[in-house]
Amino acid sequence: xxxxxxxxxxxxxxxxxxxxxxxxxxxxxxxxxxxxxxxxxxxxxxxxxxxxxxxxxxxxxxxxxxxxxxxxxxxxxxxxxxxxxxxxxxxxxxxxxxxxxxxxxxxxxxxxxxxxxxxxxxxxxxxxxxxxxxxxxxxxxxxx
Length: 144
Fold this sequence. Notes:
By secondary structure, the protein is of the alpha+beta class. The chain folds into 2 domains: 14-91, Beta Barrel (Thrombin, subunit H); 93-140, no CATH class. The protein is 29% helix and 34% strand. A hairpin with a 6-residue loop joins strand 1 and strand 2.
């Protein structure tokens, strides 16, 4: 995707294919595009405009959350019509952490009640990292 560059994300990517609209924090001009992939800390975007590295974007995912992300890398697509941007998610970490804490608390309450239902047992077996990825994917859109 990016010429002469190594992988920057420390965690795996989840392929997604969702629409978004974005704008630079200091501007109201909107741009439409598609999210290509997402990880715990990053998102890959394709759009018909180049944003310079360091640009902070407000990204509103269709039927999903609004993110604030910083462009870390960019590259022209082979067809020359689009730009691919590798962005670092700035606003999701606290939101995800708060949601994970809420879910962990709910799961612990179910376990404390010694609820033997399949759902409680399944939830209790999910690791923190798996839960974090599930939350991120469900908030950003459908993964394939």
